[in-house]
UniProtKB/TrEMBL annotation:
Keyword terms: DNA-binding, Transcription, Transcription regulation
Domain HTH lysR-type stretches: 1-60
Protein name, per record: LysR family transcriptional regulator
Highest classification ranks of the organism: Bacteria, Pseudomonadati, Pseudomonadota, Alphaproteobacteria, Hyphomicrobiales
Similarity field: Belongs to the LysR transcriptional regulatory family.
Coiled coil: none
Top-level taxonomic group: Bacteria
Length: 294
């Protein structure tokens, strides 16, 4: 039996997710089906593709060779799909957008609603994720990302700066901030930038809660668990919060709207990027922290 694309895709999924359970979930099949298919592939090829360990599946030399082929096939397929979409001038079909979860409750929904009214034949798929999705694989067509510079493989526009400041629960009085309880983002967010920021301002024992996302951080501060840094677009627009000082330049980020270079000529992508850029202009003072005085 000659291995087909579905066989290569299963083997790569097992490697990517270190086992059958994650591979099955990613491919939309059940565990028993994945188990049978992998066994059938190994039997037909006459080789063992994975060593089974308690820590997960580890590819053998034959398995790695198949994974490498699968990666090249996947890249070619993704490239073909991007090229087709990039050549399309039709304002119909699907557009996949990814954005941080916190944007759901701030500014994004009204902008998407207006875009949908203008282009009713288009269907939007919105993926909220804190992790960075892969635009080369078309996990999404366009991405809203807060960063200090986009990946060199991507193209797009800087929409606005993002100012940050310290916030606490509204209606409370605060003493020296170093003596207050703090909440912050985990070490894995932004390379530990926010962890370092807090370490420079208070003792480790004053940090009572760490989270992996801004939306949860806002709720923690508003609930009075502790004070903490927030983007001004999150903090200044929430009546449950009060700003505790000026802007913190070392936390500044830019908001980028990005796409893969193969998609930059797509009519759907161009229309969405133009729409977002125009809609963001009046929102810049809020994002940059200039809408209110501390």
């Amino acid at each position: 039996m000659q291995a087909g694309w579905d066989d290569f895709r299963l083997v790569k999924a097992v490697a990517d997710r270190h086992g059958l359970t994650g591979a099955a979930e990613s491919l939309g099949i059940d565990h028993s089906t994945a188990f049978r298919r992998l066994g059938a592939i190994e039997k037909s090829l006459g080789v063992c593709l994975f060593e089974r360990h308690r820590s997960g599946y580890k590819a053998t030399a034959a398995g790695q060779a198949m994974i490498d082929v699968a990666a090249r096939m996947e890249a070619d397929i993704d490239g073909f799909a991007r090229a087709i979409v990039g050549q399309s001038d039709a304002m119909v079909g699907e557009l996949r957008i990814t954005a941080p979860t916190s944007f759901a409750n701030t500014f994004l929904m009204p902008i998407l609603a207006d875009f949908s009214r203008r282009y009713p034949a288009m269907r939007l798929e919105l993926i909220f994720a804190e992790e960075t999705l892969n635009l080369s694989r078309r996990d999404a067509d366009v991405a809203l990302r807060a960063s200090r510079g986009p990946d060199e493989t991507l193209v797009g526009r800087r929409l606005t700066g993002i100012g940050w400041a310290l916030y606490g629960a509204a209606g409370r009085s605060f003493g020296p901030l170093a003596e207050e309880d703090w909440v912050g983002l985990t070490e894995g967010v932004a390379g530990g930038l926010f962890t370092q920021f807090i370490r420079q301002r208070t003792a480790p024992e004053r940090v009572v809660l760490c989270l992996n996302g801004v939306a949860g951080l806002r709720e923690a501060v508003a609930s009075g668990i502790g004070i903490g840094p927030l983007p001004c677009v999150e903090g200044d627009g929430d009546s449950r919060l009060q700003r505790l000082g000026g802007l913190e330049p070392e936390l500044d980020r830019d908001l980028w709207l990005l796409t893969h270079q193969d998609l930059r000529r797509s009519a759907r992508v161009r229309a969405f990027m133009d729409h977002m850029a125009a809609a963001m202009l009046p929102l810049r003072p809020l994002f940059e922290g200039r809408a209110v005085s501390p």
